[in-house]
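The aim of this short unit is practical: by the end, you should be able to scan a pair of folded records and say something sensible about each. We start with the first protein, listed as its amino acid sequence and then its structure tokens.
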Amino acid sequence: MILADQQAMRLLEELTNCFGPSGFEKEPARIMKNYVSKFADEVYTDKLGSLMFTKKGTSSSPVVLLPGHIDEVGFIISSVNKLGFLTFNPLGGWFDQVLLGQRVIIKTENGMVPGVIAAKPPHLLPASEREKVVSKEKMFIDIGASNEDEAKAMGARIGNPVIPDSHFSTMQKRIFKDGKRKGRDTIAIGKAFDDRIGAWTAAEVVRALVEKKISHPNMVIGAATTQEEVGLRGARTTAFVTKPDVCLTLEVDIAGDVPGIEPNEAPTKMGHGPSLTTYDSSMIPNQALVDLVIKTADRAKIPYQLSQIARGGTDAGVIHIANAGCPSVVIGVPTRHIHSHVGLFSMTDAENCVKLIIEVVKKLDKKTVAGFTEI
């Protein structure tokens, strides 16, 4: 691997393993702060917990914002019943079918408590019920308690945050195309890639600008934003604080190279390069900026994929209409099985995403950015 050295891989593992559902992001924010403080010009926060870190180039303007959100999808405890089982509400979007039988971790005043998501056993359901998908409302978390007192003694209470119990790992694979071997790749496996990979990318871009002494005609602000999964909330305050002139939102993309998905539903594939989103339900990107990204990738011979997301959005959805407006695009890493306990993505895609952002940042001078909104 070229960019993702041991230091970068340690950050990625630490970020994805840590505890940080929407509204409870202090741990990933502290990890990011400790990492970027070694090379950023300035590190600061807003009052919603988002972290910003800057790198001044040959000019203090335009301001180029690189946001990636650090909250992960999780749950919050809604009750502790008399039998000692915990009900929950989702923090972010969850597909009911990925939940049953999965391990979780509940953060309590007594520490981390393991549990498992369960429901009434299918053996006790009538045939008509066994054929139906069990909804979240009929599920509960079992922490091994036998009554309410035992559960509360373990620290369980309404308002406890919950995350998937899943740990980061990697595996190596040989790449084949048209029956011929084309090298190797590293596949990352774990939770919270949506969107700790975006925050990781922002950190690695700023780090590369500093350590490689890359000249850029602007002020770059990396951002680890909060509460994206529950309404793009940290992005609003981040945009207010930073007042960006242009925004390159860093995200995952839904990799469509799994059975049952048509190319028009999710066109990107894992291992074929970072994605450039041409449309989603929260934002139509600035077309001049889209063209710049495409031309930059072509000239630098960085592989990329064009994407669309008919349902869903990103932090760019609110950043592009912040203040007087902000030309924005979304650049992502195609990831399989997002919003579940375990996702997969290609480290080569992640490395190429960092390379592409750096190349684009180098071109964002005052004249170019002003041209994005010329009529």
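Turning to the second protein, read its sequence before its tokens, just as you did above.
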Amino acid sequence: MKESLLGKTLEELQDLCLKIGLPKFTAKQIADWIYLKGVADINSMTNLSLKARELLSEKYEVGLISPIEETSSDDGTSKYLYKYDEDVFVETVMIPDKSRVTLCVSTQAGCKMNCKFCATGKQGFKRNLSAGEIINFVRSLPEFDELSNIVYMGMGEPFDNYNEVIKSINILTSDWGFAMSPRRITVSSSGIIPKMIDFIYETQCNLAISMHNPFHEERMEIMPIEKKYPIEEVCDEIRKHNWYGQRRVTFEYIVWKGINDTYSHAKEISYLLRGIECRVNLIRYHQTPEFDMEGADEETMQRFQEELENFHLPTTIRASRGEDILAACGLLSTKKLSEDK
């Protein structure tokens, strides 16, 4: 099989050019073609000589892969399903909202975290996605030219695939890549503390932490990672860093009826987040037959938001998008895997 050019950094492209006898500057031309212009094959790189294209084509291909399935919601949300291996189905979701178009990308096929409420975790872990496979979500998106923001909130735990995630961010933010502002990129994690610290120092991207419950024992019941990396320790580490200015930290919180929606939960959240410049993002739960957890009703969501704001925590309720197309992460790929069995 030929090696993909998509997902390679400028330095890697320079190395391969020198390896096959091409000038070092050819790497920048290749990067322009695959990242900015989005060509699907090497022969379309018309400012490269025929000899250069022939040398490249002997061992390499662009590696751009189109989705195998697309579903669109009445609210404008679109979900794309990709097949990267025989039994590896992964998803990305495009969410338009006024002047903003956000792409939610996956980082793993399956997930090791095994959160009680997540369809991706129920698939088990298959493998990490490469930087090229992550970038493929972006570059193959039909709405690529409209794209304004990227969130690493799809299938998988980004910090469990740290090196490839950081490599993909490098491609997205570098001048030779997509030249996106890191402030338009948000990476979500359940709280793998060592990698979270690396991320804070190595990037200028926004951070989102999946909290979902402020109490240690209760969070451990739904998120096994709490045993190794308690949310209190995650918050203590975040508190050490300056989050003022344009860089943002958000705490994601799915609200379930009768589980994590009480005044005591709101008070404990305010204690955990004391001294952190942040926002709490309340999320409506997408109900699925596989899980017996019921999302809170609108009245409860509004009341819980008010309680948090009374504790001086900026709080928003995320608009529910794409419920009619299984937009929550892992649902469409799980459905596809079940059909193929």
